[in-house]
Design goal:
Elements (H helix, E strand, L loop, with lengths): L7 H5 L5 H8 L22 H17 L5 H7 L8 H17 L9 H20 L4 H14 L2 H11 L6 H30 L1 H22 L14 H14 L1 H23 L1 H5 L7 H6 L6 H14 L3 H14 L1 H4 L6 H29 L4 H30 L1 H22 L15
Helix pairs in contact: 3-8, 3-9, 3-10, 5-7, 5-19, 6-7, 6-8, 6-10, 8-9, 8-19, 9-10, 9-15, 9-18, 11-12, 11-19, 12-18, 12-19, 12-20, 15-18, 16-18, 16-20, 18-19, 19-20
Length: 440
């Protein structure tokens, strides 16, 4: 049972942690205060979760557009090969700031206003990126894109909050599956558009699509009026409480550390692979490089499967199997210079593993404190963003130093570290989920 400072539940309208013990043992504990944005209905409108999945995919795709374009952007803006990772890193740093500064607002403001407002601003930032005249303007616009792309995590939290607990894993899996699909299509779509109309078209088309999704969600999301009697904390205290939650909950820290290592491995591959594929013997086009993202379509399947397994209580088994698969995926990936089939096979294994672990993490951490879901998911994704930044910078430096073998060694190291971390901390805390016949 985690410690909680006196008055926190009263100040933030949150349940005491002893209630989570009641969930695990079957005894009753203090009932959580109603979510300030919870729907009065037992389930969300039928079209809401699929639309959230589509909007999540579109939003998170903006963070990954640059990956198949790195070589072209480096040539256009005179950025050396060892610094190409900075293009991805600046977006991820903006994403990290947004996770701490914007995602917690999901526990303060109603979901419809927050989601649609962020999507509208994201459309403007994408427009600025597409029209950027120089490297400083481009990096600045991409940092703002990353800042606002965290709306995807706000939508994940909204899907979890609007869904009954018995179906929450499926809802999170569906929305996260949309994110996975967005990531995959981001690379493919960016490659095709860049070959057809130049790299600027990638961001300009995305700006238009984002604006349309903002209008559609404005019409579908419930208004979400705050519940009577639930105090509304100040913004500063709300943000600070995100750090407090992770300081007090071992499960959040462990799952955050796993996210950092897993997405460092993920970014090591996808931020680094454009360089060997653009060079001899392959010399592939933007379209062909982006198409390799589709080889990881198994990740979308993994999201749904992992959500169902979590609902059935197999969180630890899913995590262990996913991390073992992630480590093994670097064996075929090491052969990229000799075989594109090996790259495709490794990408399938890696994306499947990453998304299985990611969905498991999000389902478990939301169950720790459902009333603080936005803050918890936002804090967790800071680890994700830090790992993605680390992998992007590390892969470009490794490739500039010793080529693709150094990149694969780096990715394998991140993956093995995650597996060892899970093995040594799997009993550090019990996932506070209902319906767990076997925690694995």
């Amino acid at each position: 049972m985690a410690l909680q400072c006196p008055g926190e539940a009263a100040e933030f309208g949150e349940a005491a942690d002893s209630g989570e013990a009641g969930v695990r043992t079957g005894t009753s504990g203090p009932a959580p205060m109603p979510d300030a944005h919870a729907s009065p209905h037992p389930s969300p409108p039928a079209r809401l979760v699929p639309l959230l999945a589509l909007a999540c995919g579109s939003s998170v795709a903006t963070v990954y557009f640059s990956q198949p374009l790195l070589v072209t952007l480096g040539e256009r803006f005179a950025i050396g090969s060892g610094l190409l990772g900075a293009i991805v890193t600046v977006t991820q740093l903006g994403y990290a700031v947004g996770l701490l500064a914007l995602v917690p607002l999901g526990d303060l403001l109603n979901h419809r206003r927050l989601v649609t407002g962020q999507l509208g601003l994201l459309a403007l930032a994408l427009l600025a990126a597409g029209l950027a005249p120089g490297v400083a303007a481009l990096l600045g616009a991409l940092a703002v894109v990353g800042l606002l792309a965290v709306v995807a995590q706000t939508m994940v939290a909204a899907a979890a909050a609007l869904t009954p607990p018995a179906r929450r894993g499926r809802a999170v899996g569906t929305v996260t599956g949309g994110i996975v699909t967005g990531i995959l299509l981001a690379r493919a779509a960016a490659g095709v558009l860049a070959d057809l109309a130049g790299w600027r078209a990638v961001y300009l088309v995305s700006a238009g699509a984002t604006a349309v999704l903002a209008v559609l969600l404005r019409r579908v999301l419930p208004p979400g009026k705050p519940s009577a009697g639930v105090p509304r904390p100040s913004y500063g205290r709300l943000v600070a409480s995100t750090v407090t939650l992770f300081a007090r909950q071992p499960l959040l820290r462990v799952r955050g550390a796993l996210a950092l290592l897993v997405f460092a491995a993920f970014s090591t591959l996808w931020s680094g692979v454009a360089q060997p594929l653009s060079s001899p013997p392959w010399s592939l086009s933007h379209t062909a490089i982006g198409a390799f993202g589709l080889a990881g379509a198994a990740g979308a399947v993994a999201a749904g499967v992992a959500g169902r397994w979590n609902d059935r209580g197999y969180a630890q088994r899913t995590t262990g199997a996913g991390l073992a698969l992630l480590t093994l995926s670097w064996i075929p990936l090491a052969l990229t210079g000799q075989s594109l089939w090996a790259l495709a096979a490794g990408a399938v294994l890696l994306d499947f593993a990453v998304q299985a672990v990611h969905v498991t993490n999000q389902t478990l951490i939301h169950a720790v404190r459902p009333d603080a879901g936005s803050r918890i998911i936002g804090g967790y994704m800071v680890f994700y963003s830090a790992g993605s930044s680390l992998g992007a910078l590390g892969s470009s430096l490794a490739y500039a130093t010793a080529g693709w073998p150094a990149v694969t060694a780096l990715g394998a190291t991140f993956s093995l570290a995650a597996l060892l971390l899970w093995a040594t901390t799997r009993h550090a805390g019990n996932p506070p989920l209902m319906h767990q016949p076997n925690k694995g």
